[in-house]
Amino acid sequence: MTQSLRALMAAPLLILATACSDSSDRDNTAPEPPPAPPAYDFAAVDDRMQQFVDEAADFDGVSYILVDAEWGVIHRAAFGDHTEDLITQLASGSKVPAVSLLMALDGDEGLDFGISEPIGPYLPWDGLFADRTVEQLVSNTSGMPGLTTILADTATYWDLACQFFPTGTLQECAERIYITEVPGIVPPSTEYNYGGSQWQVAGAVAEIVSNSTWAQAFDAYIAQPCELEVMEFGNPWSDFESFDGSPDSLIGRDNPNIEGGAISNLDDVAKLMMMHLNDGLCGDSQVLAPGAAAFMREDRGGEFGTPYGMGWFIDVPEDGSAPTLFTDPGLFGHTTWIDIERGIGGFVAVDTYSIGTSGPVRELVEAEIIAAVAAEVDRARAEQE
């Protein structure tokens, strides 16, 4: 074999050996480590919660959970007689879960339903509010009497009080509300009047357009895709102390109180906060259409004195910048909040079901806890950079 022929045959072997060597080198290159979450430390928040329980006259315990839009649950803690799996009544903290279902229905192209369309064509009754929209009903701008109006004069508004009783069905209650003329009805989008029977009518619309009960619709559109374990709606308001922390003790499932009848544990609220921080995604499931969560946060009540979206109260910055903090508080002191600037959320749970005791814990959360959580998030993220 000539020297030139040997060289010609050796060249491909050299190329192959070099390629194999390069491939081996590439295979041995260490992969980039996955990003790590910030080293959050909420010990100071825990200490303040414990101090509150130690000093509070009306609360034997509180618990809370925090989420990060990217990292999921970043902290949870329970104090006093609370446990981390405690199930509590959400009271008005039910509003964001309720509107979440309505927005999921709005996003279902297979249904003949629009949240901003008049409700008359959806309902089988001749009544007073055919020109109102579900958007107006759950932003408290429908012109129907609100919660404080009804409670201040129950004799006058007795026909609307079915929303507080576990008997009958949601359809029966909503029909009574829809056809009964009472004082105080005004044109839609002319005033803000919080809560009340307008939410029951919204729930009845949901049942009709989905051809299911409220419970079935909530399970199909929210609970299953978000893998909720506990959250459901009942109507405990005629005897709210009858709820003992067990789902079996929840009454009124056939006539659920839409604005205030949900029960939940910490984890289920956390999953819904994650959905709202991630543009309607629960894990890999697009539960709300893109933009629907932001639509819920648009201010509809501010022009009437109360910045409010659909389910969310809006914290308006004094400097005129765009709002980034939204809250959904409940009568007994529960508070859910999301901070869309930081991509975080929190939920503080209580189980002291007494009228008039919520002030101290609500003040604690709104004046101290939300700010303390935000400060720790900022610190930990800055340290990671």
TrEMBL record:
Keywords: Hydrolase, Signal
Gene Ontology MF: a single term: hydrolase activity
Residues in Beta-lactamase-related domain copies: 59-351
Name of a matching Pfam family: Beta-lactamase
Keyword Cell membrane on entry: no
PROSITE patterns named in the record: PROKAR_LIPOPROTEIN
Domain of life per record: Bacteria
SUPFAM superfamilies documented for this protein: beta-lactamase/transpeptidase-like
Leader sequence residues: 1-19
InterPro entries reported in the protein's UniProt record: Beta-lactam-related, Beta-lactam/transpept-like, Diverse_Enzym_Activities
Gene3D superfamilies (alphabetical): DD-peptidase/beta-lactamase superfamily
Keyword Calcium: no
Stored PANTHER family: BETA-LACTAMASE-RELATED
This protein's name: Class A beta-lactamase-related serine hydrolase
Organism field: Halioglobus maricola
